[in-house]
Amino acid sequence: MKKLLTATAAGALMAGSAFAASHSDEIKMGIIVGFTGPIESLAPAMAAGAEMAMAEVTESGKLLDGVTVTPVRADSTCVDSAAATAAAERLITGDGIKGIMGADCSGVTGAILANVAVPNGMVMISPAATSPALSTAEDNGLFFRTAPSDARQGAVLAEILAEKGIMSVAVTYTNNDYGKGFADAFQSSFEDAGGTVTLTAPHEDGKADYSAEVGALASAGGDALVVLGYVDQGGAGVIQGALDTGAFDMFAFGDGMVGDQLTANFGSDIGGSIGTAPGSDNEGGAKFAEMASAAGIDGTSVYAGESYDAAALMLLAMAAAGSTEPGDYVGKIEMVANAPGEPIMPGELDKALEILAGGGDIDYGGATGVEFVGPGEAAGSYAEYVIEDGALKVVGYR
Fold it and tell me: What pLDDT is stored for residue 303 in this prediction?
């Protein structure tokens, strides 16, 4: 009888603790992106975008009786899976977070998902992990992304090149899950369009000299060099080597290369080159950029809008579930993101929380027109960039 009473008391205590945890005055949300590593120039705007959504919800006072949302940052490094996994574990066991906005790069995202999120039942929404392999990862329904898969980006980039009459290219990619998946998707689409890939070759990040890689690509030839790498690492090194040797003067870039650092490094030397990155021509995007600018943040930076949306979706799902516990709110994420319901724009999280509190439905479009088309998969669209007068210019959307 004593054991039964003890077990009953323990069960009651655990239930009470769970209730208190989901109705406390503060909830902590993890933000794990590559503050160091090959996309460190993109990370500040990504983190700040997520924190904008968290601050907006806190200021509304309408999430679960006015809880405060506190962001907790951690460094994914983008490339070191062991370091990223350790950082994610600290967020859960040390900081007691209730959701992860991140990670960013596909390899570390997959490692955190398999080794930390799934074992701990933690929800992850990545704003930037785009590897097609993540679409079939064992995630127990816990993983979502607000950026579309590179299976689509590869097709878009191939389509743009074909339309410009560039039908012979060499391809170099960063030697990880992101780069390999993107390269495979691009090559398949480009060849289907009648194009020729003269060589597809990986490159390692962190090297001082890329002359061997550039030499092989130059020997293979092509009307352009497709660079599917990182703007702060090997991708930039390959471009510099190609320019120094005159191997290529026309480039095509994937999203990991699209950022202000690209033009800061090369400017007019890569004039006419093209790139793609997630982006959409919608009212929400313009509204987010305006809000971000007012807060001193570059809202046009790649993945800043996706980060705002990732954080907003978790918080709105908590409101819909009436709980901050991942197991309770995970089932509400697609519900708040998709129709039917009242359309919700950036800056309207107060309105969304009010509707949910009244038992109504919302259709969160946010900064990037979020729409889930499969388990955790965002439909997404892409901005087409051209380097013009030494600057990145958006010339269309697809």
Answer: 96
Where residue 10 falls among pLDDT bands split at 50, 70, 90? very low
Count, residues in the chain: 398
Q: What is the CA radius of gyration of the chain?
A: 22
| Residue 375 in tokens | 């388990």
Burial class (CB in 10 A: 0-12, 13-18, 19+), 337: buried
Residue 154 placed within a domain: yes
List, in sequence order, every residue forming a beta bridge with 200; answer none if it has no partner: 171
Which percentage of the chain shows pLDDT scores above 90? 92
Backbone φ and ψ for 208, nearest 5 degrees, come out as -85, -20
Measuring CA to CA, which residue among 378, 154, 372 is closest to residue 253?
A: 154
Gap between the Cα atoms of 85 and 75, Å rounded: 10
Residue 150: pLDDT over 90 = yes
CA dist list (Å): 355 to 23, 318, 320, 341, 351: 19, 13, 9, 10, 6
In a domain, 11, yes or no: no
Q: Which pairing describes strands 68-75 and 100-102: parallel, antiparallel, or unpaired?
A: unpaired
Residue 299's domain spans which residues? 27-149+282-378
What are the residues facing 377 on neighbouring strands? 374
- Residue listed under structure tokens 């370091």: 83
């503060």: which residue's tokens? 26
**CA distances to 91, 100, 110, 200 from 76, in Å:** 12, 12, 12, 28
Are 217 and 204 part of one and the same domain? yes
| pLDDT(7) > 90 | no
Please write the tens of the pLDDT for every residue from 57-76.
999 999 999 999 999 999 99
Q: Give the phi and the psi of residue 143 in degrees, each rounded to 5.
A: -110, 135
Do the beta carbons of residue 130 and residue 156 sit within 8 Å? Answer: no
